[in-house]
Amino acid sequence: MSLKIEDYGLIGDCHSAALVGNNGSIDWLCFPRFDSAACFAALLGTPDNGRWQIAPVEDVLSVKRRYRPETLILETEFQTASGRVRLIDFMPSRDGSADVIRIVEGIEGKVPMHLELVIRFDYGSIIPWVRHTPRGIRAIAGPDTLDYRSDVTLRGENLKTLADFTVTPGHRTRFSLTWSRTHDPEPIERNPETELLHSEKWWQEWSGKCTYSGGWKDDVLRSLITLKAMTYAPTGGVVAAITTSLPEHLGGVRNWDYRYCWLRDATFTLYALIVGGYTDEAKAWREWLVNAVAGTPNQIQIMYGMAGERRLTEMTLPWLPGYENSKPVRIGNAAYNQHQLDVYGEVVDSLHLARLAGLAPDENAWRVERELVTFLETDWQKPDEGIWEVRGPRRHFTHSKVMAWVAVDRAVDAVEKYGLSGDAEKWRALRTKIRDEVCAAGFNTKVNSFVQHYDCDEPDASLLMLPLVGFLPATDPRMLGTVAYIQKRLMNHGFVHRYLTESAIDGLPGGEGAFLLCTFWLADNLALQGRTDEARDIFERLLSLRNDLGLLAEEYDPQAGRLLGNFPQAFSHIGLINTARNLSREGATALSRTMSVE
């Protein structure tokens, strides 16, 4: 039986990451990058698709987990009838590393342990050639090699590597798994204890740079650490999630690969990093962004690979049954070819936020902004697929038009307040034209609300962004009506859905869970309207959805009471950081992105 999504913990090294279950099994691991083929894919199949479990032989009476303070070092304690044992999991925080280290420590009694290692390259499809080495085994399949080193004697059975050992109080047993390219020299074995000390120091030093001093500080820091773990260190790109195909509806087809960098996430990520005081990471993210979108504006994609790769061809993996039989399992993401007007606004807004935060001016960044706004002078009038990447016909989405307005608005601000070169007069006129059209065509007087797209009466949670980007005050009667309409039509047990999936706008069957980021946006809107107590109640409700390690997925099923979608999800943690900061302002007032983030 599959573990629930919330039963997993995250470990990572800012290059790749793994999910560790509360049963001691690593069920998802991609080496050497977040988007590399998984060598452990049991998360989307069965143990035969690859996993690495270390757990007591006896029945486990209780499990306790935690991260070491201010780190991503995971500790899992198992209590059995014979005693108590601690499993320490981490990925060494060194540039260029591709390692997982596990240390088993006896705490009380004499606890028999069992180890099962199932290496299956290429998402569980390839059984490697395995040979014994003096300290373990070496598994090879084409370009990929894993060196497994252990303090215990290993044996092979039925294409698996097994071991049995016993731990006693104070006794520590060490294991490591290292990836390398097959044609490279065999990697040098690292001392697990030394690596543990180094990683703990590295994470604590990084956490110590956090300047956030508002409410919920520990929660904000945990989410910042999670975002850092999802950052690809060589380029500064942040992946949307470390997993693919965890379903938005159990048994459904809404299963997508999120191991890429979305331009839309740029603004939210940059804002969250700045809130935490991490200007070096914010600067690296800006550099990744400018490099990724290099070229002509009409060639800009909505997402890229971690190093700026553009071809993210989508395909399905028929040999994997999917998480709780949710098919298909996909790798790649066909949405990279979509036209989404809002990403132009998000890119320009992210660079605007960098200026507000005092990041050093970047000539290339302004050149990119200027070209994007020039492109939008005509492109803003075209239909698109919208923020939710619907796989149906293009429409005139209201949120998309608003984000085009944002791009032009920020360009005007850059000229008028920062003295950058540009035709502010023409852009001011364009800004007014877009605003007038949105207010006329995007607002439906019959329902007293802005609506998903022109000529409809459907709500959309993306409309909660209008006050947050400065398009209208949250107290404007039209926004009061919009918030009320969203609460009436899209809320489910206190959580917000993105849109009405039964409307068939996205061309897909089945529904999905409530979208956590949208619920954070609702809290921001209520705070801006002066409904502070309601905003705080929603925020605290969202915090309660986190698992015992402080991690959030993309969505939540209120009926089943469980997390859904890819995990952990950057958007959800970004929302947590931003809303905590917004509610911590004087008077608990949320913050428009047009204002200073100091």
From TrEMBL:
InterPro entries with a match to the protein in the record: 6-hairpin_glycosidase_sf (IPR008928), 6hp_glycosidase-like_sf (IPR012341), GH15-like (IPR011613), Trehalase-like_N (IPR045582)
One Pfam assignment: Glyco_hydro_15
Domain GH15-like, chain residue ranges per copy: 218-580
Cofactor dependence: phosphate
A biological process from GO: trehalose catabolic process
Pathway: Glycan degradation; trehalose degradation; D-glucose from alpha,alpha-trehalose: step 1/1
Catalytic activity: alpha,alpha-trehalose + H2O = alpha-D-glucose + beta-D-glucose
SUPFAM superfamilies xref list: Six-hairpin glycosidases
Signal peptide per UniProt: none
Residues of the Trehalase-like N-terminal domain: 4-144
EC number: 3.2.1.28
Keywords carried by this UniProt record: Carbohydrate metabolism, Glycosidase, Hydrolase
UniProt key word Ribosomal protein: no
Molecular-function annotations in GO: alpha,alpha-trehalase activity
The keyword Cytoplasm appears for this protein: no
Similarity comment: family membership: Belongs to the glycosyl hydrolase 15 family.
PANTHER family for the chain: GLUCAN 1,4-ALPHA-GLUCOSIDASE, TREHALASE
Name assigned to this protein: Trehalase
Originating species: Planctomicrobium piriforme
